[in-house]
Amino acid sequence: METAPKLGRDVPPKKDKLQAKRKKPRERKNPESQRSLSGAQDPFPGPAPVPVDVVQKFCRIDKSKKLPRCRSKTRNRLKVAETEEEETSVTAARSELLLAEEPGFLEGEDGEDTAKILQADIVEAVDIASAAKHFDLNLRQFGPYRVNYSRTGRHLAFGGRRGHVAALDWVTKKLMCEINVMEAVRDIRFLHSEALLAVAQNRWLYIYDNQGIELHCIRRCDRVTRLEFLPFHFLLATASETGFLTYLDVSVGKIVAALNARAGRLDVMTQNPYNAVIHLGHSNGTVSLWSPAVKEPLVKILCHRGGVRAVAVDSTGTYMATSGLDHQLKIFDLRGTYQPLRARTLPQGAGHLAFSQRGLLAAGMGDVVNIWAGHGKASLPSLEQPYLTHRLSGPVHGLQFCPFEDVLGLGHSGGITSMLVPGSAEPNFDGLESNPYRSRKQRQEWEVKALLEKVPAELICLDPRALAEVDVISLEQKKKERIERLGYDPEAKTPFQPKPKQKGRSSTASLVKRKRKVMDKEHRDKVRQSLEQQQQQQEQQQQQQHKQEKAKPMRARPSALDRFVR
Amino acid sequence: MKVKMLSRNPDTYVRETKLDLQKVPRNYDPTLHPFEVPREYVRALNATKLERVFAKPFLASLDGHRDGVNCLAKHPKSLATVLSGACDGEVKIWNLSQRKCIRTIQAHEGFVRGICTRFCGTSFFTVGDDKTVKQWKMDGPGYGEEEEPLHTILGKTVYTGIDHHWKEPLFATCGQQVDIWDEQKTNPICSMTWGFDSISSVKFNPIETFLLGSCASDRNIVLYDMRQATPLKKVILDMRTNTICWNPMEAFIFTAANEDYNLYTFDMRALDTPVMVHMDHVSAVLDVDYSPTGKEFVSASFDKSIRIFPVARSQSREVYHTKRMQHVICVKWTSDNKYIMCGSDEMNIRLWKANASEKLGVLTSREKAAKDYNQKLKEKFQHYPHIKRISRHRHLPKSIYSQIQEQRIMKEARRRKEVNRLKHSKPGSVSIVSKKKKHIVAVVK
């Protein structure tokens, strides 16, 4: 029979496990002690410095917000989460080193105003590939054009007022389709990818393939003036002449919400890319903010003295630019106060506004386009001096900055113009979100993943991070909601009904006796409660008096008998 | 004028040949990734739903015994070997990867009450209703040899359980008292007893190897110290404990499977109140075994189901049942933390997955990354109502479901009566007992 192997002589004896293990503190490598063989020292000791604003960009916990009282376990977990977030934001800030591209810029020499620089000069000074990005399509026959770039910035769709609809890859100038829909075209949008187009025609809304094949005619959306596509919710928002804002889910094909804006004809619409809220401009000078989950506008902002003619929101959802019939161009703060930050009077009202990815603001006023810039990325553009200007051959009818290229697409009555705006676009795209160089397979995979993580329309609200917040609803509000939902108050005391019993215990006298018993018990409870409350109040008063008395003798001169005072 | 336009070289963004990988540049700027929280929420919802879709825990049923399976034992060195003892005295050794019985021994006349393997894995011990303790070789008999035990010990009383020391050549049996035996001697080196009733099971502590725990019919759990050959302390509960199991990671924690449908996790150092009361079974809990990680355990119950409990929570995270599985007598968690085996009344041993929706086999690195991400998402969003509802949903057989409803009503009635008694009596005359302490009667040192 085998036995356990005995410990040999050279095996060290086992330590007593019940003895507490003392951990030696880890010795950090001293920077002075790290010397190489040659004796040289590291000229930059310690970890590499990281710019604070970049680290701030990656921080998501709002440390100023106070959480409700919580248990120590929860508090510990929150502390751990905060330290983790600090470490990860520093690591993410360091990873910015790997970004390959730098944004463009345009600087005049001493005294030179960049606004006076012509597009022709820029085209001459810049490399061939960028110069090819500037082109003019002269299409006078089919009316003023509306333009739209796809989400990756690779494809351009335009629709003319007299029915001309076309889609092309504007970088390689390869035409995808060109048709005439034989009806007035009021607006045109790409859906989630370059495969589908939505065209708001005179009567109804039509969906076309990028080969020009008509796929759907949505008769519920009639007399649509403006379209907006919410890419992460797969919702197509349409504003119509009848005053209705309709949300159509293009993945399922259902109308999610049809909201009556109650403000007459809806002409001016834009989306806030940060929280997917739709901004509508009205003829009484107000801008209202809508979400498909709520029947009333979330916010109403009074912006101008006359009607609002154009609204634009920047990509971080911080600033909203509006222009009105009172020739004013104002920039509002959307996160917090909703107050105007900048204002400027224009000689001619701006009918079209657009923000670029890096925070440049373009305004189309008649046949002139002005672009204003701020300092650095995503900063408030200063409206003093325009950064660039351009004059077109006809009045502007639509403008949009191309997503990842330094180009502004303009649709006007003379056709389409692509204008060079150095420094307007985000230089480094994320390959898994929108990749202009994606292959067919990558597009298919991306589409499937995007559909799987399609955000439901009910989650659209002013703060997109609201789902991550701790839900602190007061007890009363919960109760009110419950009563509303059930139709009656389940906790309300129903008057006591004695149960009918057998064998003569149900006579009138005994019923009355039982009712009386219950009433007396309730009365006794009430009296006891009020007595308790009175007692508590008395105790509190006594304590306060005690404290006052204690304070008084301390103010008087101390005497030897003070130690006997309780 | 100084001008520079953003101009990308397509060669750095498009792959050179079809055989290369695609180039995917990354930018983690939060402004390029809006709607983080709602998108992660939808991904967590999808992950939870898919977990329920892929939750298929039943793997195999090992057929062959001719009477109910009474006890199971794991081989300490081989993951694929399992020993089982049946109610007709038969002991079978199974190979789990081939799902076949590789050896059958007629070990006892009557029930095989307990079976345990030696720590080196070369032999195993069985005790039966015929008052004998037999030691057998793990390898089968050679050519021409008879199936004979290595060693037989005849006792005077019926032995009801056996367990082997984790490091030394000693084993303990229990019956009328707890005996500690040396493998080479025919008489126990010491006998310990405290109380007058028979003892149903005994277990050695895997970490502090000189400690033993036993459960007796007079509703107590007694802890013994082998070095001093005396009982240490005992705790008396409301109802009898069927078995205990020591936590393989925490030396002083053990879980007791009780007849009052609950499991109690005790800290050995403070037996007056259990660390946790696990309440989810609807009938007596017959066996319990810990996972090798020490974070979860599995329990087998008379109500034809087995449940997996996390150590820190009082509700089960998983319940396994089948129409064909009747009262489950014994259960074991395999040493690689992946599988659970249970032996039941109807002569079958069933093999289940410990994580019902886990994909078995080798995973590619992409699969592993996706699995880890989904796991973290489910953990982060586990408290949201829709996700909680989906992840908690389990189908239960009608008998268990209706029993749960009935017991809930009974508990509620008892609680209401307690509250009324408290309300209508003089304050201070009725003491409030915490729910955990309620089940403990006394602790004796």
Automatic annotation (TrEMBL), chain A:
Coiled-coil annotated spans: none
Which terms does the UniProt entry file under GO BP? Answer: maturation of SSU-rRNA from tricistronic rRNA transcript (SSU-rRNA, 5.8S rRNA, LSU-rRNA)
Top-rank taxon of the source lineage equals Eukaryota
Where found, per UniProt? Nucleus, Nucleolus
- Name the residue ranges with Basic and acidic residues bias: 7-19, 519-529
This protein's encoding gene: WDR46
- Which SUPFAM superfamilies does the record match to this protein? WD40 repeat-like
Protein name (database record): WD repeat-containing protein 46
Main location, first listed in the record: nucleus
UniProtKB/TrEMBL annotation, chain B:
Q: Name one GO biological process term.
A: decidualization
Pathway as given in its UniProt record: Protein modification; protein ubiquitination
Entry superkingdom: Eukaryota
Annotated Gene Ontology cellular components are: cell junction; centrosome; Cul4-RING E3 ubiquitin ligase complex; cytosol; nucleoplasm; small-subunit processome
Q: Which regions does the record annotate with the repeat WD?
A: 62-104, 278-319, 321-362
Ordered alphabetically, the record's keywords are:
Nucleus, Repeat, Ribonucleoprotein, Ribosome biogenesis, rRNA processing, Ubl conjugation pathway, WD repeat
Q: Which InterPro entries match?
A: Sof1, WD40/YVTN_repeat-like_dom_sf, WD40_repeat_CS, WD40_repeat_dom_sf, WD40_rpt, WD_repeat_DCAF13/WDSOF1
For this UniProt entry, what is the primary localization, expressed as one broad class? nucleus
Task: Domain (Sof1-like protein): give its ranges.
Answer: 354-440
Localization per Swiss-Prot or TrEMBL = Nucleus, Nucleolus
Give the family from UniProt: Belongs to the WD repeat DCAF13/WDSOF1 family.
Q: How does it assemble?
A: Part of the small subunit (SSU) processome, composed of more than 70 proteins and the RNA chaperone small nucleolar RNA (snoRNA) U3. Component of the DCX(DCAF13) E3 ubiquitin ligase complex, at least composed of CUL4 (CUL4A or CUL4B), DDB1, DCAF13 and RBX1. Interacts (via WD40 domain) with DDB1. Interacts with ESR1 and LATS1.
Function, as annotated, reads: Part of the small subunit (SSU) processome, first precursor of the small eukaryotic ribosomal subunit. During the assembly of the SSU processome in the nucleolus, many ribosome biogenesis factors, an RNA chaperone and ribosomal proteins associate with the nascent pre-rRNA and work in concert to generate RNA folding, modifications, rearrangements and cleavage as well as targeted degradation of pre-ribosomal RNA by the RNA exosome. Participates in the 18S rRNA processing in growing oocytes, being essential for oocyte nonsurrounded nucleolus (NSN) to surrounded nucleolus (SN) transition.
| Cited PANTHER family | DDB1- AND CUL4-ASSOCIATED FACTOR 13 (PTHR22851:SF0), U3 SMALL NUCLEOLAR RNA U3 SNORNA ASSOCIATED PROTEIN (PTHR22851)
Protein name, entry field: DDB1- and CUL4-associated factor 13
- Per the UniProt record, the source organism is Carlito syrichta (Philippine tarsier)
